[in-house]
Amino acid sequence: MRFHRLVLPTLSWRQNPLGAVILSVAVFLTVFGTVMVLSASSVEEIAVHQSPFAAFTHQLMFAVVGLPMMFIASRVSAMSWKRWALPIFVAGVFLELLVLFTPLGMTVQGNRNWLRLGAFSAQPSELIKLGLVLIVAAIIDRKREAIRTGVHVVREVYLPIAIALLIGVAPVLLGKDLGTSIVIVAAVFGVLIFSGIRIRDIVLGALGAGGVVVLLAMTRSSRAGRITTWLHGCGVSDQTQAACWQPVHAQWALAAGGIFGKGLGDSMLKWSWLPEADNDFIYAIIGEELGLIGACTVLALFIVIAIALIRTARRRSDVFGSAASGGILVWVVGQALINIAVVLGLLPVLGVPLPLISAGGSSMVVTLIGLGAAASFAGRVEEPEAVSTAPTRSRTPAPAESGAFAMHDV
């Protein structure tokens, strides 16, 4: 099949308006993010004696790979996504185990969550996000009768979901990446919300997951320090402390941008003042260079994706498509809101990148594939029903049907 035949029908506003919205916003955010990575990373690349275009070239290469994969994913049926849920999930977990137990794994800033493959590196946890969303949606779709009746729902539904979640999250937690683990768990709850499961059960599960997150956060001194710093705030005398440095300088960057910003490329905080300026804190550079207008525009685009995904989930007639759309919604938009909240100081530093904008090839590619799957769900509101090939039995009229009030087949 030629590529233009695969892509052009997806972009039809008349045939698939919600899918076209999702894909159009994703393309814009990807292009915009690549430009912002160039702006935010060039100074740091020069400082380590690299080309100022090194990070930009890397990001552009993955964008060139990821965008066509998104369009291809948008043409895959929901039935195919359901069949591929388990292989995707198993592949993500297997690669994450390679990170933990083989020399291919890399430790970055205390977290062992990167897989080195020659000149390239990737985060298998990104693939776990997609695989877990799909496999939990598939479990719920297969057990929808148990959910409807409430018979053996714990054994038939909740236990398999809990096992899948444990298998997916445990390797990520062993790599000490709590931020990504929070996003994965939140995505699973997004699947549950749009699957018809009782709200009471979801709330109880969320309270239990929240307690586990707090317990894990307090068992590591660096995490506990960030939470304590966030709770107490950073005073004038604390601004040079490690836990306060990023939040304070991120807020300085946002304040310096004002309403209209200093102009693209004119950030001052990216000159080695703000760590991870091209990654976790790129939203601060957006606010400094493009101002309140630019920062609000990025936030508005993620809200547009959220609205499109909510409408997709509500329009679907099948449980799998609706639940998977909800999971992708919480995964992508929820992660974006977490990142923005961290930059604004509304949450402690979690190390979660801004989807499609922060530097990171594997995150971009898998997120684009996930949004492509969501666009596919938006374009296929109902799955075609199987047509029975059994011979039909002709009905012989009963004697009573021969009178004036007889019922005749049409």
Summarize the entry for a quick read.
By secondary structure, the chain is mainly alpha-helical. 66% of the residues lie in helices and 3% in strands.
What would your notes on this structure say?
The protein has 410 residues and is mainly alpha-helical. 66% of the residues lie in helices and 3% in strands. The radius of gyration is 24 Å and the shape is globular. The two termini are 43 Å apart. A hairpin with a 2-residue loop joins strand 2 (111-117) and strand 3. It has one domain (12-381). A three-stranded antiparallel β-sheet has the order 1-2-3. The protein contains 14 helices and three strands. Mean pLDDT is 86; it is low at 3-10 and 382-410. The longest helix has 34 residues, at 282-315. Helix 2 runs antiparallel to helix 3 (54-73), helix 2 packs antiparallel against helix 12 and helix 8 (178-193) packs antiparallel against helix 13 (319-344).
